[in-house]
Amino acid sequence: SCSYQRFVNCYRCFYKLQPQLTRSIYDQFISQLQASIKEEIQEVKNEGNLEGLFSSLDKIVEEAKDREEPAWRPSGIPEQDVRSAMVPYFLKHRSHLRRLLKEKEEENRKVAESVLMGRDRIAELQQLIQARQQAWQ
Question: What is the value of pTM for the model shown?
Answer without folding.
Answer: 0.41
